[in-house]
Amino acid sequence: MTAALAALGVVPPPPALAAAQTVVVNGYAFPHGVLEYVADPCPGGVLRAPYAAYRRDDVLGDHAIGLAFGGQSGGMAGVAVWVAEPSTLLDASLATYHPSVSPGFARDGQIVIRLYLDEGPDPLWLEGRYDVSGLGGRHAGDDVADIATDWYWSDDATLADEDRTLAQEADDWGSPGRARIAFELGCRGRDFFFDDLRIRTTTGATTYDFEGVPSQAFISAAPTHHSSDLERGITRLDLVKGQDHYLLADAKTPGDGVWSPGYVPGTATLWARPWGAPDFSPVASGGFGTDTYAQFHVQPDRQTEYQVRTSGDDTFEASTSATLLVTVARQVDARAPATRVRQGQPIRVKGRVAPGDAGVRVTLQRKVGKHWRTVDRARTRANGRFALRVRASNTGRWTVRVAVAAAKGNGASVTPGTRIRVLPRPLPQPQPVPQPVYVPVPVTHVPTDAPKGTVPPSAHHRLTPH
User: Fold this and answer.
1) Nearest 5 degrees, angle CA 10-CA 16-CA 18?
2) Longest dimension (CA), the chain
3) Domain range enclosing 249
4) Number of domains, the chain
5) What is the CATH number of the domain that holds 406?
6) Per residue in 89-121, pLDDT tens?
7) What is the SS3 assignment for 340?
């Protein structure tokens, strides 16, 4: 087809690029049917079961997994990968790292390649082997696709072909079935780590990225301030200004085939984002064990979000808990100076809120039946002070309270009801009728026989001031 297009002067399109993907492998939780753990005795040695090891650094990436032999030689182990279409194999390699120095060019292990002709109950395969030696430090890995080996039948004695690569051997057999490539090291008893297992065929490329064991961090607390119960993974907690609380932290793992699922030891850091802050910042750190918590004492003034983050270690990946939202209602100190008033007089309520912000809306509410009705409104002044009042229009028992609106990072608050007794107006008292005041008028007796114009001596005496 390409030649026909060229003859017509048409430039053929470039071949499609092979798809590339990265598969994250959590520790030794190998995907079934794709990767598998392998272990064998070295020539002249005995099979020794190494311990799983983990490493966190930048030598092979964020994490690498490995095997610890503890200096005991004679056995080897590693990882095997299955290749679906071996005749199309272009590249195959495994990056390794040996912390200890290589003792010359002594044999470290081998790469074993099996080409399966039949995968039934009694499988038949061809096997090629390639010795690995002299490894030290970081090794990018040999490209197995370019290695030409002799091929033996599955009896490990009868030679089938000589000096051929896996792709060539598979192509000669008409691409019969899958191939299995095993990377095994450890014959000298040296610990090693591996990462980035790469397989590339004409149809695509896959990198297996070996990471540490995943973990899940938890933030736990009692669901209310007065509760003794513990809620794991809590996401909401309501407090009042001045109340404190304890937050607990730990982590667990789902396991990876080596580590059993369960709680793990580690270090947790409490991160907080107070109201108005752009991001989280660390507050405190603490250690936890398989049966203990890291404890953090908190007493926020305003709404705050908390998270627990574990830093991870050589074995466990870092993780972050769910976010816990802690709301903080304002503390309200309200007082009624008089709890007994007369009808028509004002019922006064004064107080202060904490935190003491100015401009926060407060309302005075009266309970009428089963409902609360607002009877006055105001806003807090400096230091959170406020004053509210309502005129007592009718007699009886009044129940009033103060409600504070949510504002500036604090939740709404309301005080308990306060009872006020409104007494009737006093009856007017009858005023006494004033008695008339009589002033005696002196009467002067004039004898009838006295001459006109004559004033009796006694009268003259009374009218003359002394």
Assistant:
1) 160
2) 191
3) 216-329
4) 3
5) 2.60.40.10
6) 999 999 999 999 888 888 999 999 999 998 778
7) strand
